[in-house]
Amino acid sequence: MKQFIMPAMAALILSACGNTVNNNSTTDSTEQDQVATAPAPGIKLKDDKLNAIYQHYVHLTSALVKGDVKEARLAGNAIETGAKEISGAESLGAAAGKITATADIDAQRTAYATLSNDFISLVKKSGLSSGAVYVDFCPMAMNDKGAFWLSSDKAIQNPYFGEQMMTCGEVKETIQ
Asked: Which of 60, 75, 114, 131 is 20 to 30 A from 96 in CA distance terms?
């Protein structure tokens, strides 16, 4: 009986997020890592200090996609430090500090939701001088309350669930 319940539950979860199971994937993990870690060429925020933080935000997102607590802490520390240089980024710095202070991936992902909301607001306020970033949304994150994050690629790589539900989510907005 358990053999039938687990696959059925997995299918239900994936279908709730609008995804299908594909056991014949040809994308290897190296390609996925490159997508998650490398910001798209040509993306530049108008605010130079915020632009510097963006590189660390990409690093943090990638670490959470991979479930890498140590890398998330490193990126969080860099964001916390950079946020001190930006007026109005106190909440961003505080959320980054929570990521740095914990070795619990779930706690990091919860703080990341707050950090992402703050960062998205700052990016919208600053604007981009080149390129485009995408505001992604996962409806199942944060106990089905949903959560946003920024991405430099239209392909969804979910930092809230990582490998459990890598492609859960959708692009809600494009910032150019």
From this structure: 131
The sign of the torsion formed by the CA atoms of 69, 78, 30, 32 equals: positive
Rg (alpha carbons) of the chain, rounded to whole number: 16
Residue 122 lies in a domain: yes
Q: What is the rounded distance in angstroms from the CA atom of residue 93 to the CA atom of residue 2? A: 45
- Decide if 161 is inside a domain: yes
Give the Å distances, CA to CA, from 78 to 71, 94, 155.
11, 12, 26
Q: What are phi and psi of 44, to 5 degrees?
A: -145, 125
Total number of domains constituting the chain: 1
Among candidate residues 99, 67, 105, the one with its CA nearest the CA of residue 83? 99
Question: Distance between CA 176 and CA 164 in Å, rounded?
Answer: 31
pLDDT digits (tens, 9 = 90+) for 146-170: 999 999 999 999 999 988 999 999 9
How far, in Å, CA of 50 to CA of 45, rounded? 7
> Closest Cα partner for 123 from 70, 63, 51, 172?
51
| Domain-located, residue 9 | no
Structure confidence at residue 20 (pLDDT): 33
**Which residue range(s) make up the domain with 117?**
44-175
CB 71 within 8 A of CB 166: no
User: Rounded distance, CA 64 to CA 138, Å?
Assistant: 14
